[in-house]
Amino acid sequence: MAGTDVVTLGDFIEQESQDFEGSLAFTIKADYIKREKLWKSKDLAAEFLGNFWRHILDVESIKATLQFVCAELMENAVYHSVKSEYMIVIQLCFKTDELMVYVKNSAGTEHMEEFKKFAGTVLAEKDLQKLFIQRMKEVKQTGSKKSQVGLITLIKDRGAKLSWKLEQHPDLTVVTTLARISLQGKVA
Amino acid sequence: MKIEGEGYTVTYRNGQVKISGKLSLMLEDYSELEAFFKHIIESGPSELTLDIRNLEYLNSSGIKTICVGLILEAADVEGLTMKILCSNQYTWQKETIPTFEALMDNMAILFE
Questions:
Q1: Taking CB atoms and an 8 Å cutoff, what residues of chain A touch B95?
Q2: Integer Cα distance of B15 and B47 in angstroms
Q3: pTM of the prediction?
């Protein structure tokens, strides 16, 4: 796209290039409803997605995993969205061997360098347990609000594979986060 | 002492902190729970039990609040021992809570 600087972090795959068996999307303007209501809706949407795909796939364990992954990614989207006219989109796509959760939101470009650095660390780190403990101790020492523990937990505990696409526009950056959850060995 | 919110309850009595329900507040809304934990640590217990056996859901801001506001604060108190009571029925607890062990030396994590 002309005038747009695009960077991908990790093994990002475009939705358009995929052949899905099915998908389900929620789309809402970031500022259409009060943040508190959006927060509550996010929990309901995550629970619904967890239940829906558990039923479709007939895999009991996928419900809790999906609920956590969807809720955490939507929490990040709600926190970082900066422009009301931009949409928060969560799309859950199903392939025979994996689920792909795409969450798209706008974010302040000024935060992107810090985010790229963090994403690089998370993607390269082999010992995420160590990184988790280190982040908790740093947060206690510095009083920082940004623990990024959500993203670390998604990889470390929920087995999600994360990647991002950052599209820098003149006044904001559009961030698409992709969480891939393997279904291998889970679907009968 | 007790905090009751939409879908969750936190109580403290005789060295036992019990959190139950679904806890998924916005980051800034955890300040009440942080103050609650601070008060507990300052009351000077010699043993502390965190009972989350009925905690169905905890978001990452909640994980941060418990790790930083309660466990790491407790780790700084000399002689204080801690136990976390967990439930095998919640997958997230089995996946996430064992990681907490490295936050504090005198801590036991028990599943049932």
A1: 157-158
A2: 6
A3: 0.91
Structure token pair of residue A104? 């798209």
CATH of the domain at A9: 3.30.565.10
Give phi and psi for B84, each to the nearest 5: -120, 120
What is the least distance, in Å, from the CA of B12 to any CA of chain A? 23
**Residue A16 placed within a domain:** yes
Question: What are B25-45's pLDDT values in tens digits?
Answer: 988 899 999 999 999 999 999
How far is B27 from chain A, CA to nearest CA, in Å?
Answer: 8
Task: Give the mean model confidence (pLDDT) for residues A20-36.
Answer: 81
Domain annotation for chain B: domains and CATH numbers = 2-111 (3.30.750.24)
Q: Kindly determine whether residue A156 and residue B64, on different chains, have CB atoms separated by under 8 Å.
A: no
User: B-chain residues within 8 Å CB-CB of A39?
Assistant: 26
